[in-house]
Amino acid sequence: MSIERGYDPREFALVAFWRSGGLHACELAEALAIPTVMIPARPGALSAFGILVSDVVKDYSRTVLWRLEGVGSQAALVKLEKEFRKLEAAAGKEFRAEGWHGRLEYERSLDLRYRGQGYELNVPAAANVTARVLATQFHDEHQRRYGYHHAGREIELVTLRLRARLRTAQTGSTRAKGCRTDNARKASSCAKPVERAAVFFHDKAVNTRYLNGRTGSGPRMTGPAVITEYSATTVIPRGKKYWMDGAENL
Q: Global pTM?
């Protein structure tokens, strides 16, 4: 899916979370030639935390099926603006009905295609955008996605899209300060070796370090290692280097 969209996995990092994401992350990244894996702090709660700090976003659309060349006239631009204003009015009404307060931000875009195509590509549409700019954006995106474009072919405007966004106040994550003890569990959250034991990697037993929690930021260490914490377990194969940064990401 990433390659189909024009993205090379080798240029990205793999973020693994939830309870078992860290069990398979290193081998999956190696299979895709992804150079770096990141296990965020408190991975089992990452989705819940993300919901709390995410913006409120709603998407709206309207199908029009216009010739892009016709959008260049002043009358067509006024018509285009009018349709976007209708979508903005619908968004504002829906946000108010749900009890949201604050200034909405709008992102406009258009679904374009070559005439006769059965699929569209989405390009941004700033206020008072011209047909020539839209055509250039579409050709560039088609070239990036599929490796070719048709400079002289007629382009159709299929769908108007509006994304309404209400920014949420960001909440900083709390960082651990040294060792601490949970009185209810009588267990320290400090990272420390629990034991060394044989762990099977590809049908071969390997002497492996077990860690209870994450190590503090410092020099890089080398696997194999198994890191257990309250919400997740991470497996680091032999030869892989690992460390924790200042935000407690592994």
A: 0.64
